[in-house]
Design a protein that fits this description.
- Strands 4, 5, 6, 7, 8, 9, 11, 14, 15 and 16 form a 10-stranded antiparallel beta sheet that branches. Strands 1, 2, 3, 10, 12 and 13 form a 6-stranded antiparallel beta sheet that branches.
- By secondary structure, the chain is mostly beta strands.
- It contains 5 helices and 16 strands.
- The chain has one domain.
- The chain is 11% helix and 38% strand.
């Protein structure tokens, strides 16, 4: 950004003074906020390549899980390399403040995609007597053998009317301090369940990405994410919101965390968080470009 950027509006003395200038911050940010491709973190591409963003989460045929039992204690074979997924979360998008009969909420879209060596492959094993569907994660080794271990349950979502993996994500809204670091947690979701399917191409250049969707339905037999594919929950979907009843005007960070309990096995568990800075005032939420926050941190003597 040049001399007319949002960063130029924020004074050297910190973001606290910027809160008194929120109307100017919002107006300038609204005009200068880049599109989603420009907001991608380095190495986190997101594209469609002609794939419809309105992909339906219809039911897929039931698929039986592996007949072999999980390995003892869920341990990996020590002598073979396992091709695991790597779940990454893009910064939330389509952020808006909405007034509902139950109160004011912050709505947003969320995308989780797989940048690993193998698919996130989930299979349901239903216990009819207990009326529960246990979920195992299956993975292949480099030599071609397979292994699996328990990771949770498929639960029925009464609003979405299909099956979800329980406890897949958590959404949080944080106040931020004078240099943009997370300060106080002001709103949080419960652990959010997900139907995991290939919705859109996330990494078109990934040589491991299958050309077509391999996970297409929200049944309790099989769900997952192919390498290079992402699952997007649009902002209008039930559950894609945080309450704002106790949130005043100011600057905040909206955080999305996939696999918060680390039940799913991945190649890397430290990259599951997506974050976007927001200016919230009255009935509007405006994305604050990360360049403005980074510059303020640098000017305040922090990491540049």
């Amino acid at each position: 950004m040049g001399s007319g950027s949002l960063a130029a509006v924020i004074p050297r003395h910190g973001l606290a003074r910027a809160r008194r200038c929120l109307p100017a911050v919002i107006a300038l940010s609204w005009a200068l906020t880049p599109s989603l491709p420009a907001l991608r973190l380095s190495g986190w591409p997101l594209g469609n390549e002609g794939v419809s963003p309105l992909f339906s989460r219809g039911e897929a045929p039931e698929v039986q899980a592996l007949s072999s039992p999980p390995p003892p204690d869920g341990a990996f074979p020590v002598d073979e390399h396992i091709l695991l997924p790597d779940l990454l979360t893009t910064p939330p998008t389509s952020v808006e403040v909405t007034n509902l009969p139950t109160g004011r909420v912050l709505r947003f879209a969320n995308t989780v995609w797989n940048g690993g060596e193998g698919p996130l492959d989930l299979h349901g094993v239903t216990d009819v007597a207990a009326r529960r569907t246990r979920v195992v994660q299956r993975a292949s080794t480099a030599a071609g053998s397979t292994t699996e271990w328990p990771v949770g349950e498929f639960v029925w979502h009464p609003t979405h009317t299909h099956w979800h993996l329980d406890g897949f994500a958590v959404y949080q809204l944080w106040s931020i301090d004078q240099v943009g670091d997370l300060d106080n947690l002001v709103a949080s979701s419960d652990k959010v369940s997900f139907c995991l399917v290939d919705v859109e191409i996330a990494d078109p250049d990934n040589r491991l990405r299958p050309p077509a969707r391999e996970y297409t339905g929200c049944g309790r037999g099989r769900q997952g994410l192919s390498v290079g594919w992402g699952d997007t929950y649009r902002s209008y979907i039930d559950g894609q919101s945080l309450p704002l009843d106790k949130v005043g005007d100011g600057l905040y960070a909206l955080v999305s965390i996939a696999n918060p309990d680390h039940r799913l096995r991945e190649t890397e568990a430290g990259n599951n968080t997506g974050l976007v800075y927001l200016a919230i005032t009255a009935d509007r939420a405006t994305i604050v470009p990360i360049r403005a926050i980074a510059r303020e941190r640098c000017l305040s003597g922090g990491k540049c």
